[in-house]
Amino acid sequence: LKRRSITKRHDSVLQILCRFASSHGVLTQIEPNNYEGSRPDAELYFTEKRYHTDVSITHPGCPTYRPAAAKTALAAAGRRAKAKNKRYVEFSSFQGCGFTSFVCETYGGFHVDASKLLKSIVEEGESMDDTLGPLHGGCFVSLIKQISIDIQRGNAKIVRQWVAQKHASKV
């Protein structure tokens, strides 16, 4: 498969995450370019803290994750989050930031770190305007749905691309 469809799915989830953060008072910078070499997908500026995050969407049915995913829910997401942490925690700490991965599975599951990040964003919005508290909770559920639907839309595009390639190779 060409990476284009996979990259578009990733970028779409990143955009949704950053729009949500911005709407809750968290400043965001997508793909910060003030770092050399490897860099996280986004930098999030909360009132009292700064975080790097890196988005990943993993498929529990791929050969690498299948044995563990067959036994444990979100095993693929957990393994991918661990790899992201290994890659970025030290780098982010050196930059004076925290790091949290934002890993989802193709079937719709969210790694616990992704859920915690979303809850931190909601709390940031609530701390800025406590009159909007109940609305933010509804936004959280809506966001989870929006990201899940977006991942499924991306999955469908990837499958269509694969089918088209298989059909073209037979002709």
List the helices and strands and how they pair.
Elements: H1 3-23, E1 27-30, E2 42-45, E3 50-58, H2 66-71, H3 75-94, E4 98-105, H4 112-128, H5 133-170
Helix pairs in contact: 1-4, 1-5, 4-5
Describe the fold and architecture.
This protein has 5 helices and 4 strands. It has helices spanning about 5-25, 65-70, 75-95, 110-130, 135-170, and strands at about 25-30, 40-45, 50-60, 100-105. The protein is α+β, with helices and mostly antiparallel strands and about 170 residues long. Strand 2 and strand 3 (about 50-60) form a beta hairpin.
Strand order of the largest sheet: 1-2-3-4
* 3D shape: globular
pLDDT average, as an integer?
Answer: 90
For the largest beta-sheet, the strand count, sense and barrel status come to: 4 strands, mixed
The tally of helices reads 5
Distance between the termini: 18 Å
Helix content: 55-70%
Query: What Rg is obtained from the alpha carbons, in whole angstroms?
Result: 17 Å
Number of strands: 4
Oligomeric state as shown: single chain
Which strand-content bin applies to the residues?
5-15%
Order of SSEs: HEEEHHEHH
Class derived from helix and strand content: alpha+beta
Low-confidence runs (pLDDT<50, min 5 residues)? none
